[in-house]
């Protein structure tokens, strides 16, 4: 029995074809993985199957869900299926969560409205769902009080709560550490069982390998290869698929360590930090040096983002001191946000926002064009609003905007979490090249330990108990310091 069958699904933006016709089917108990770089059309295909494309885009084709046949060009007919027959895990958890509701109520609402549970039972089940995802104790937190990985897990719990047999997961492990990624993969497979359907959109090679099933590889809106996931990993035929697999950070050549002697741009001494009454870490000392890359890694919720916010002066530490070298202009310290959707005004075109930054920074049009080229971005994206581009494209545009500022310090919070391996390698190369050429100090945060290990001059690992007074000094190459969880 086929749960979902899609025939010749395509997506157009006016006369431009963003996704060439793709056909697929979803069978019970067999995951289907759509693998590809950001901008390859993965999310567009998922949105066409759900009837959630932005209004300026148009889909064609045929979608059959059980005995019901739908036209993706008439998305209003899909609404009755949401939560009941099809559940979706969106790529951007911040867009799917109500900012005025705590985590428990986000999940309980679906149990109550879609499944028809009594309110008390819905709240009890929501608590159990969150605990199963490692969120016990976070039930009363609002979305802005959650880390990116925690928000993603709340979104997963809410999407599962409706009991839909078909789940479409768009980058479900974005921003999660390896342990949480494996937990989410196991959870999705468990929920699918032998009778459910699971379609996963991802660029995460480890996730694709763990899910198994079948796989379709997309590039620039076109299918380049398809087959059993295990077979494709063992023997890829297409040159692009081979390049994609080879770009995994585990295969990178370590970056040469920066020379010693650069002055510290920002320093911390014996700092401790807590949020929501929970101690994140204590006794951390560090120096981020001019022209150096300082890497920070650790599990979701361990305080990586909070550490960066403290160094930027956005929040204060509970104890200890932080010093920042004065810069030549008021925007000398810049942050690359983990969720770029929160960094762009939704009602303005991307071009308008970038033009404002260029004007305030004294940048020339040629500077914008050069960065667009270096980041692999089409200039036509600047005509769109943030909601009409992929998460990976928006992430690279965030980097472009920060680089236009010529900052002395960049706190890059998971700057490649939405990028496939090939684009990720290009973006990291640009970031590290900028630090060396311009003498920028870079603090690079990532859940990917291999990326941090192969890129950074110094590594600080948070979330590992057992060391009461961790410290890290820049340019002590590859030395790992541990913080308290």
From TrEMBL:
<dbReference type="InterPro" id="IPR017871">
    <property type="entry name" value="ABC_transporter-like_CS"/>
</dbReference>
<dbReference type="GO" id="GO:0005524">
    <property type="term" value="F:ATP binding"/>
</dbReference>
<dbReference type="Pfam" id="PF00005">
    <property type="entry name" value="ABC_tran"/>
</dbReference>
<dbReference type="InterPro" id="IPR025662">
    <property type="entry name" value="Sigma_54_int_dom_ATP-bd_1"/>
</dbReference>
<dbReference type="GO" id="GO:0005886">
    <property type="term" value="C:plasma membrane"/>
</dbReference>
<comment type="similarity">
    <text>Belongs to the ABC transporter superfamily.</text>
</comment>
<protein>
    <submittedName>
        <fullName>Peptide/nickel transport system ATP-binding protein</fullName>
    </submittedName>
</protein>
<dbReference type="GO" id="GO:0016887">
    <property type="term" value="F:ATP hydrolysis activity"/>
</dbReference>
<dbReference type="InterPro" id="IPR003593">
    <property type="entry name" value="AAA+_ATPase"/>
</dbReference>
<feature type="domain" description="ABC transporter">
    <location>
        <begin position="4"/>
        <end position="245"/>
    </location>
</feature>
<keyword id="KW-0067">ATP-binding</keyword>
<dbReference type="InterPro" id="IPR003439">
    <property type="entry name" value="ABC_transporter-like_ATP-bd"/>
</dbReference>
<dbReference type="InterPro" id="IPR027417">
    <property type="entry name" value="P-loop_NTPase"/>
</dbReference>
<dbReference type="InterPro" id="IPR050388">
    <property type="entry name" value="ABC_Ni/Peptide_Import"/>
</dbReference>
<feature type="domain" description="ABC transporter">
    <location>
        <begin position="266"/>
        <end position="484"/>
    </location>
</feature>
<keyword id="KW-1003">Cell membrane</keyword>
<keyword id="KW-0813">Transport</keyword>
<keyword id="KW-0547">Nucleotide-binding</keyword>
<keyword id="KW-0472">Membrane</keyword>
